[in-house]
Design goal:
Helices cover about 50% and strands about 15% of the residues. It is an alpha/beta fold and about 250 residues long. It has one domain: Rossmann fold, CATH 3.40.50. The protein is globular and about 45 Å long. The two termini are about 35 Å apart.
Protein backbone atom coordinates (compact mmCIF):
# COMPACT_ATOMS: atom_id res chain seq x y z
CA UNK A 1 0.00 0.00 0.00
CA UNK A 2 1.46 3.35 -1.08
CA UNK A 3 -1.01 5.94 0.18
CA UNK A 4 1.69 8.61 0.45
CA UNK A 5 3.64 8.36 -2.79
CA UNK A 6 4.72 11.87 -3.76
CA UNK A 7 3.98 13.27 -0.31
CA UNK A 8 6.42 14.86 2.16
CA UNK A 9 5.80 14.44 5.88
CA UNK A 10 7.33 16.10 8.92
CA UNK A 11 7.19 14.17 12.19
CA UNK A 12 8.37 15.96 15.34
CA UNK A 13 9.84 14.11 18.31
CA UNK A 14 10.57 11.29 15.88
CA UNK A 15 13.71 9.82 17.45
CA UNK A 16 11.79 7.26 19.53
CA UNK A 17 8.41 5.94 20.60
CA UNK A 18 5.26 6.97 18.77
CA UNK A 19 7.13 9.50 16.63
CA UNK A 20 9.63 6.95 15.36
CA UNK A 21 6.89 4.41 14.66
CA UNK A 22 4.90 7.03 12.76
CA UNK A 23 7.89 8.09 10.68
CA UNK A 24 8.60 4.48 9.75
CA UNK A 25 4.96 3.78 8.83
CA UNK A 26 4.67 6.91 6.66
CA UNK A 27 7.88 6.03 4.85
CA UNK A 28 6.78 2.42 4.37
CA UNK A 29 3.71 3.75 2.57
CA UNK A 30 5.70 5.97 0.24
CA UNK A 31 6.20 9.32 1.99
CA UNK A 32 9.50 11.17 2.11
CA UNK A 33 9.86 11.79 5.84
CA UNK A 34 11.64 14.55 7.73
CA UNK A 35 12.61 13.02 11.09
CA UNK A 36 12.72 15.96 13.51
CA UNK A 37 14.16 15.85 16.97
CA UNK A 38 16.07 18.18 19.26
CA UNK A 39 19.33 17.03 17.67
CA UNK A 40 19.92 15.57 14.21
CA UNK A 41 21.90 12.76 15.85
CA UNK A 42 18.80 11.83 17.82
CA UNK A 43 16.77 11.13 14.69
CA UNK A 44 19.60 9.75 12.56
CA UNK A 45 19.06 6.13 13.58
CA UNK A 46 15.39 6.28 12.57
CA UNK A 47 16.17 7.97 9.26
CA UNK A 48 18.91 5.43 8.53
CA UNK A 49 16.58 2.52 9.30
CA UNK A 50 13.99 3.95 6.92
CA UNK A 51 16.59 4.28 4.16
CA UNK A 52 17.84 0.74 4.74
CA UNK A 53 14.27 -0.47 4.26
CA UNK A 54 14.05 1.34 0.92
CA UNK A 55 12.32 4.52 2.06
CA UNK A 56 13.26 8.20 1.93
CA UNK A 57 14.08 10.08 5.11
CA UNK A 58 16.35 12.78 6.49
CA UNK A 59 17.05 13.72 10.08
CA UNK A 60 16.81 17.37 11.12
CA UNK A 61 17.66 19.14 14.36
CA UNK A 62 14.80 21.37 15.45
CA UNK A 63 13.87 23.01 18.74
CA UNK A 64 10.13 23.09 18.12
CA UNK A 65 9.58 25.51 21.00
CA UNK A 66 11.34 28.22 18.97
CA UNK A 67 9.28 29.68 16.12
CA UNK A 68 12.20 31.06 14.11
CA UNK A 69 13.97 27.71 14.19
CA UNK A 70 10.80 25.91 13.11
CA UNK A 71 10.32 28.25 10.14
CA UNK A 72 13.93 27.74 9.04
CA UNK A 73 13.83 23.95 9.32
CA UNK A 74 10.48 23.68 7.54
CA UNK A 75 11.92 25.77 4.70
CA UNK A 76 14.89 23.42 4.54
CA UNK A 77 12.59 20.39 4.40
CA UNK A 78 10.58 21.98 1.60
CA UNK A 79 13.74 22.66 -0.39
CA UNK A 80 15.46 19.32 0.19
CA UNK A 81 12.51 16.90 0.12
CA UNK A 82 10.32 18.79 -2.32
CA UNK A 83 7.32 20.07 -0.41
CA UNK A 84 5.28 19.67 2.76
CA UNK A 85 1.98 17.82 2.80
CA UNK A 86 1.74 16.17 6.22
CA UNK A 87 2.64 17.41 9.69
CA UNK A 88 2.58 15.16 12.74
CA UNK A 89 2.97 17.12 15.99
CA UNK A 90 4.34 14.45 18.29
CA UNK A 91 7.12 16.19 20.26
CA UNK A 92 6.52 16.29 23.98
CA UNK A 93 7.93 15.89 27.46
CA UNK A 94 6.66 15.25 30.97
CA UNK A 95 7.69 16.92 34.22
CA UNK A 96 5.30 15.25 36.63
CA UNK A 97 4.56 16.39 40.15
CA UNK A 98 1.58 16.97 42.41
CA UNK A 99 0.08 20.37 41.72
CA UNK A 100 0.97 21.94 45.07
CA UNK A 101 4.63 21.02 44.53
CA UNK A 102 4.83 21.82 40.80
CA UNK A 103 7.50 24.36 39.89
CA UNK A 104 6.59 27.14 37.48
CA UNK A 105 9.57 26.13 35.34
CA UNK A 106 8.10 22.62 34.96
CA UNK A 107 4.71 24.08 34.04
CA UNK A 108 6.30 26.31 31.41
CA UNK A 109 8.55 23.67 29.89
CA UNK A 110 5.72 21.14 29.46
CA UNK A 111 3.34 23.70 27.94
CA UNK A 112 6.09 24.89 25.58
CA UNK A 113 7.17 21.42 24.46
CA UNK A 114 3.70 19.88 24.11
CA UNK A 115 1.42 22.76 23.08
CA UNK A 116 3.36 25.83 21.96
CA UNK A 117 5.45 23.59 19.73
CA UNK A 118 2.28 22.47 17.91
CA UNK A 119 1.32 26.14 17.44
CA UNK A 120 4.72 26.95 15.90
CA UNK A 121 4.76 23.90 13.64
CA UNK A 122 1.16 24.21 12.46
CA UNK A 123 1.62 27.91 11.75
CA UNK A 124 4.72 27.18 9.69
CA UNK A 125 3.11 24.24 7.88
CA UNK A 126 -0.06 26.08 6.92
CA UNK A 127 2.01 28.49 4.81
CA UNK A 128 2.81 25.64 2.44
CA UNK A 129 -0.51 23.85 2.79
CA UNK A 130 -2.78 26.82 2.10
CA UNK A 131 -0.74 27.71 -0.97
CA UNK A 132 -1.19 24.23 -2.45
CA UNK A 133 -4.72 23.89 -1.04
CA UNK A 134 -3.92 20.54 0.52
CA UNK A 135 -2.58 19.34 3.83
CA UNK A 136 -2.94 17.00 6.80
CA UNK A 137 -2.09 18.00 10.36
CA UNK A 138 -2.27 15.37 13.10
CA UNK A 139 -1.30 16.25 16.67
CA UNK A 140 -0.79 13.97 19.65
CA UNK A 141 -3.07 14.63 22.59
CA UNK A 142 -3.48 12.14 25.44
CA UNK A 143 -6.00 10.46 27.67
CA UNK A 144 -4.40 12.67 30.35
CA UNK A 145 -6.31 15.60 28.80
CA UNK A 146 -9.25 14.32 30.86
CA UNK A 147 -7.22 14.77 34.05
CA UNK A 148 -4.44 12.75 35.62
CA UNK A 149 -2.99 12.94 39.10
CA UNK A 150 0.48 14.47 39.11
CA UNK A 151 0.17 15.82 35.56
CA UNK A 152 -1.57 19.19 35.78
CA UNK A 153 0.89 20.65 33.28
CA UNK A 154 0.75 17.73 30.84
CA UNK A 155 -3.05 17.43 31.11
CA UNK A 156 -3.49 21.14 30.40
CA UNK A 157 -1.17 20.96 27.38
CA UNK A 158 -2.88 17.90 25.93
CA UNK A 159 -6.35 19.41 26.47
CA UNK A 160 -5.03 22.49 24.69
CA UNK A 161 -4.07 20.32 21.71
CA UNK A 162 -7.70 19.32 21.36
CA UNK A 163 -8.89 22.94 21.38
CA UNK A 164 -6.18 23.95 18.92
CA UNK A 165 -7.11 21.06 16.65
CA UNK A 166 -10.80 21.96 16.57
CA UNK A 167 -10.05 25.61 15.85
CA UNK A 168 -7.50 24.95 13.11
CA UNK A 169 -9.96 22.58 11.43
CA UNK A 170 -12.43 25.47 11.20
CA UNK A 171 -9.91 28.02 9.94
CA UNK A 172 -7.95 25.78 7.55
CA UNK A 173 -10.80 23.62 6.26
CA UNK A 174 -11.62 25.99 3.37
CA UNK A 175 -8.11 25.28 2.03
CA UNK A 176 -8.73 21.51 2.02
CA UNK A 177 -6.55 20.98 5.08
CA UNK A 178 -7.63 18.29 7.53
CA UNK A 179 -6.66 18.80 11.17
CA UNK A 180 -7.13 16.04 13.74
CA UNK A 181 -5.69 14.72 16.99
CA UNK A 182 -5.00 11.32 18.48
CA UNK A 183 -5.27 10.80 22.24
CA UNK A 184 -3.51 7.61 23.29
CA UNK A 185 -3.97 5.84 26.56
CA UNK A 186 -1.04 4.01 28.11
CA UNK A 187 1.64 3.25 25.51
CA UNK A 188 4.84 1.34 26.26
CA UNK A 189 7.44 4.06 25.55
CA UNK A 190 10.48 5.60 27.20
CA UNK A 191 8.21 8.39 28.50
CA UNK A 192 5.88 6.03 30.34
CA UNK A 193 8.88 4.08 31.64
CA UNK A 194 10.15 7.32 33.17
CA UNK A 195 6.73 7.89 34.74
CA UNK A 196 6.85 4.40 36.21
CA UNK A 197 10.22 5.05 37.78
CA UNK A 198 9.00 8.37 39.19
CA UNK A 199 6.19 6.55 40.98
CA UNK A 200 8.53 3.86 42.32
CA UNK A 201 7.56 1.07 39.92
CA UNK A 202 9.52 -0.96 37.41
CA UNK A 203 8.19 -0.25 33.88
CA UNK A 204 6.90 -3.82 33.54
CA UNK A 205 5.00 -3.57 36.84
CA UNK A 206 3.57 -0.18 35.86
CA UNK A 207 2.38 -1.58 32.52
CA UNK A 208 0.76 -4.54 34.27
CA UNK A 209 -1.17 -2.22 36.58
CA UNK A 210 -2.34 -0.12 33.61
CA UNK A 211 -3.34 -3.24 31.67
CA UNK A 212 -5.52 -4.43 34.53
CA UNK A 213 -7.58 -1.22 34.24
CA UNK A 214 -7.94 -1.51 30.46
CA UNK A 215 -10.73 -3.58 28.84
CA UNK A 216 -8.29 -5.07 26.31
CA UNK A 217 -6.11 -6.06 29.29
CA UNK A 218 -2.88 -4.77 27.80
CA UNK A 219 -1.10 -1.51 27.04
CA UNK A 220 -0.55 -0.18 23.54
CA UNK A 221 2.50 -0.49 21.34
CA UNK A 222 3.79 2.65 19.56
CA UNK A 223 3.01 1.04 16.20
CA UNK A 224 -0.68 0.79 17.11
CA UNK A 225 -0.88 4.53 17.74
CA UNK A 226 1.12 5.23 14.59
CA UNK A 227 -1.41 3.28 12.53
CA UNK A 228 -4.19 5.63 13.65
CA UNK A 229 -2.07 8.75 13.10
CA UNK A 230 -1.22 7.59 9.59
CA UNK A 231 -4.89 6.87 8.82
CA UNK A 232 -5.79 10.45 9.75
CA UNK A 233 -2.89 11.72 7.62
CA UNK A 234 -4.17 9.79 4.60
CA UNK A 235 -6.85 10.53 2.04
CA UNK A 236 -8.81 7.62 3.52
CA UNK A 237 -9.75 10.19 6.19
CA UNK A 238 -10.51 12.95 3.68
CA UNK A 239 -13.80 13.93 5.37
CA UNK A 240 -12.54 13.65 8.94
CA UNK A 241 -11.49 16.95 10.49
CA UNK A 242 -11.58 18.66 13.86
CA UNK A 243 -11.71 15.35 15.71
CA UNK A 244 -9.80 13.90 18.64
CA UNK A 245 -9.71 10.12 18.45
CA UNK A 246 -9.04 8.31 21.73
CA UNK A 247 -6.97 5.16 21.26
CA UNK A 248 -6.96 3.62 24.70
CA UNK A 249 -8.04 -0.02 24.57
CA UNK A 250 -11.61 0.77 25.56
CA UNK A 251 -10.79 2.50 28.84
CA UNK A 252 -13.36 4.88 30.33
Amino acid sequence: MNRFTGKVAIVTGAAQGIGAATARRLAAEGAAVAVLDLTAEGGQAVAEQIRQEGGTARAYACDVTDGETVNAVFGQVDEELGGLHILVNNAGITRDNLFFKMAKADWDSVLDANLTSAFHCAQAAQTYMTRQRYGKIVSLSSRSALGNRGQANYAAAKAGIQGLTATLAIELGPYDINVNAVAPGYVATAMTAATAERTGHAPEEHQKLAAERTPLRRVARPEEIAAVVVFLASDDASYVSGQTLYVNGGAR
